[in-house]
Amino acid sequence: MKRFRHRLASLLMASCALLSGAAMAENGVTDSTITLGMSAPFSGPNGIYGTEMRESITAYFEQINKGGGINGRKLELVSLDDGYETDRAVANTKKLIHDEKAFALLAFYGSSPTTAAMEVFSGAKVPLVGTISGAETLRNPVNRYMFNVRASYANETDAIVSQLASLGLKNIAVFYQNDGFGKSGLDGVTAALKKHGLAPSAVGTVERNSLDVAKAVEAISKVTPQAVIMVTLYKPTAEFVRQMRKHGQTPQFMTLSPVGADLLVKELGNDARGIGISQVMPYPWNDSNPLVREYRKLMTTMGKQSQSPYYGVEGYAMAKVMVEGIKRAGKDLTRDKLTTALESMGSYDLGGYRVSYSTSDHNGSRFVDLTVIGNGGKVLR
């Protein structure tokens, strides 16, 4: 009887130890895998944006996994389509955290969708690395679980306005998307113009996922602007440029990085020539840049051909930040350790492109490069 009791006690102690260990294990982390979640548009007019990011991320994760993973754990990506719709992005975030048990999140898309989703992932204390947004709502005040990888819209619009002002242009209008993305860009343009003693000469809007630009064209055409700064995505941008030119308007058109230079060229053809675009990633055809060189080599090795290299490079940069953060967090991986590790990346060089984080600054980067679409649709610096 004593021997039976002793064995029973030993079994109970072992079971309790196993249960305790299981309870302590972080969601999304096993001895062999780390599950990461992504919500972005993979369908609809903006589906190419999410697809490009996902392809470069999965290619990089595959490379990491072939090398043994991180501390013996392979990276797995669960990606959900939100169609660039806020409600779907929020629902996806909940599903990724609660149903898919994602350890952390990366590569979200859009200002309004990510801002709304931030309430969910920060409430669950799950970090997100990277989103296609430069909105201030994702930067100030600092949210411990939101890590930006790109420059802000304020950085982009300041560079654009400074360039236009240096050319002596003063009659500058704004065409923007009527949501968090567009309004954040409008705020950036307005603040930048104020530094030069100017204000928008006219404004026009378009709804998200819409091509109805008629009212915007009418309002902006009335002032015959010297330049128009467009805070819109590629399809409404292309439609607006076409309609403005039909009205005999030939301003200097400028737009922000989310537009996707290659996609705009495909949509507009030769009519895209002369449009200026601010970029927040290194020039993706410059093999002298280590980050770009690595990205291009990886995609070639994987047999993938990018349709929008700027988005591909950005997805690659997000993936590299995530991997570095997980490595720094150590073998006993927790979300809190990952968050702390990311905040320790005071100035991390991804390869000619640096990100910087601290407990008081999650902006990541302030890099902005101005480009223009030249003959044949080539993006020129």
Q: How is this structure best described in words?
A:
The protein is α/β, with parallel strands linked by helices. It is 45% helix and 18% strand. The chain is built from 12 helices and 15 strands. α5 (153-166) packs across α6 (180-195). It is globular. The N and C termini lie far apart (84 Å). Residues 1-23 have low confidence and may be disordered.
Element-level helix/strand string: HEHEHEHEEHEHEHEHEHEHHHEEEEE
Write down the overall geometry. Answer: globular
Q: Give the tally of β-strands.
A: 15
Oligomer: single chain
Rounded Rg: 23 Å
Tell me the strand order in the biggest sheet.
Answer: 7-6-8-9-10-14-15
Q: Uncertain regions: pLDDT < 50 for 5+ in a row?
A: 1-23
What key attributes describe this structure?
381 residues; alpha/beta; 5-stranded parallel sheet; 15 strands
Please give a quick description of this structure.
With 381 residues, this protein is an alpha/beta fold. The chain contains twelve helices and 15 strands.
